[in-house]
From TrEMBL:
Keyword check for Transcription regulation: no
Family in the record: Belongs to the class-IV pyridoxal-phosphate-dependent aminotransferase family.
GO molecular function, one term: branched-chain-amino-acid transaminase activity
Keywords: Amino-acid biosynthesis, Aminotransferase, Branched-chain amino acid biosynthesis, Pyridoxal phosphate, Transferase
The species this protein was found in: Punica granatum
Pfam families membership: Aminotran_4
InterPro entries: Aminotrans_IV (IPR001544), Aminotrans_IV_CS (IPR018300), Aminotransferase-like (IPR036038), B_amino_transII (IPR005786), BCAT-like_C (IPR043132), BCAT-like_N (IPR043131)
Reaction(s) this enzyme catalyzes, per UniProt: L-valine + 2-oxoglutarate = 3-methyl-2-oxobutanoate + L-glutamate; L-leucine + 2-oxoglutarate = 4-methyl-2-oxopentanoate + L-glutamate; L-isoleucine + 2-oxoglutarate = (S)-3-methyl-2-oxopentanoate + L-glutamate
Protein name according to UniProt: Branched-chain-amino-acid aminotransferase
Keyword Transmembrane helix in annotation: no
Taxonomic superkingdom: Eukaryota
Transmembrane stretches, start-end: none
Amino acid sequence: MKMGAERICMPSPSVEQFVHAVKQTVLANKHMVPPPGKGSLYIRPLLMGTGPVLAMGPAPEFTFLIYASPVGDFHKARTPLNLLIQEKIHRATPGGTGGIKCITNYSPVFKPIKEAKAQGFSDVLFLDAVTGKYIEEASSCNIFIVKGDTISTPAIAETILPGITRKSIIDIALDFGYQVQERLIVVEELTEADEVFCTGTAVGVVPVGSVTYQGKRFEYGIEAVVTKKLQVALLGIQTGLVEDKMGWTCMLD
């Protein structure tokens, strides 16, 4: 939030204010937390301009709020995603806001997502806007490819969001002994991958069942051994079923 606020000329709460607000929101809604295995309490922090102004420019005042809602699995039973590679519309452009959590990253992709879902796809995978050769992200999640013992993901750039689930999976993968590469990934590498998966706050870790590019569909095995191993490890830490050696979890009073 601090990174995004600075980019679009907004003040932001301190880390202490942010964590305190999240804790208070969870405690106030603890009766809404679903039973284990039935979902989670989705927490959404929001920072928005609210001051009275008509001129183009930063708002004179801002509101920081957090809302929460019980949710089931974003993708039911972690069903593998069927992605469609979008070549004509781009999620982000160099010099824009693709690298921060900002509404401008989401509303422009509603149309291609709607069209893809009408064709039976789960989501859209976007390519870089400059060359159209490299994969970047799906509409709301980062992407990884697995080849042997190497796990690769597009390197963080101003067009790619540095998702916290992305970072968590990288750290877990390294702890398991996998080689992790953050680099440019040409779209053709998807055709040779052993596994492909996506990560995000809402989706968690979800396998990709197929990718369709230029009318050709490339499918991946249902085993997804590496994906499931990482998925189980992250979920175990999040739910307190495994020891948190990373120091990520926050206990509520």
